[in-house]
Specification:
Elements lengths: L21 H22 L4 H4 L4 H6 L3 H8 L8 H25 L5 H25 L3 H16 L6 H10 L6 H13 L9 H12 L8 H18 L1
Helix pairs in contact: 1-9, 5-6, 6-11, 7-9
Length: 237
């Protein structure tokens, strides 16, 4: 005997109904953001001087890494971790002092001037970090472990870990996720034109300490934040 079937010849369990829940949507959005941010991180350094209006003092006072070698003359991959830390302090202080001298000469500055100084302090800190690491003999630490640790700090350890995870689970901090993803990728890339840790990171730290987010368009608050950031960076070294 033969049997015939009509309609759908495939058993229904082979094609179960797929429901796109909100968790799946968040998952898709997150990894899409990671992908596009990765692409953007790779092309951004080529345009940073043209896109960032607060980059003027960076171009003026913070030299490129090859130029630093002419000033500090430390052979590549030649010094210990202790000397790397000392070289980082030396280079960072030298570069920041150039910016501070400019602030003293060209006062009073408006909010835009202090925003430029803030960018210069961040660039000095970051460039000193990259230069000192490139002189260290511990390649595994300086090119893999340290960037990974900074990426962790810029993302999940941006505040207390429990608070960050609470934000993720409850979706209360979902609007901050793109910034954190971006900062984490920037720290992994280690490009001299993209500071790690970033300005948004330090603005959040200022808010955590002072209970208010600084208005960088206000001259007094921009000045307060610029010198707070300088003292914070010096204390970390």
């Amino acid at each position: 005997t033969t049997t015939t079937t009509t309609g759908n010849r495939n058993p229904p369990y082979l094609y179960p109904d797929f429901k796109c829940t909100w968790k799946i949507k968040v998952f898709i959005i997150f990894f899409s953001a990671v992908f596009f941010a990765s692409c953007l991180v790779n092309i951004m350094p080529a345009f940073i001087n043209h896109l960032d209006s607060d980059h003027a003092l960076v171009t003026r006072f913070i030299p490129a890494l090859p130029t630093m070698q002419r000033d500090f003359r430390t052979p590549a991959y030649s010094i210990s971790d202790v000397r790397v830390a000392g070289l980082r302090r030396e280079v960072s202080k030298d570069l920041c002092d150039r910016v501070v001298e400019y602030l003293k000469r060209d006062t009073p500055l408006n909010a835009a001037g202090f925003r430029q100084a803030t960018s210069a302090f961040l660039a000095a800190h970051h460039s000193a970090n990259l230069y000192a690491r490139s002189r260290g003999s511990n390649i595994l630490r300086h090119y893999i472990l340290d960037p990974a640790l900074e990426a962790w700090q810029a993302t999940f350890a941006r505040h207390e870990l429990s608070y960050t995870m609470w934000e993720v689970v409850t979706l209360r901090g979902l609007w901050r996720m793109p910034i954190r993803v971006w900062d984490g990728l920037v720290c992994i890339k280690q490009d001299e034109k993209l500071p790690c840790l970033s300005l948004p990171y330090h603005l959040e730290q200022f808010e955590e300490v002072h209970g208010r987010y600084p208005d960088m368009k206000d001259t007094a608050e921009a000045r307060e934040f610029a010198y707070w950031l300088l003292n914070k960076l010096e204390a970390n070294y």
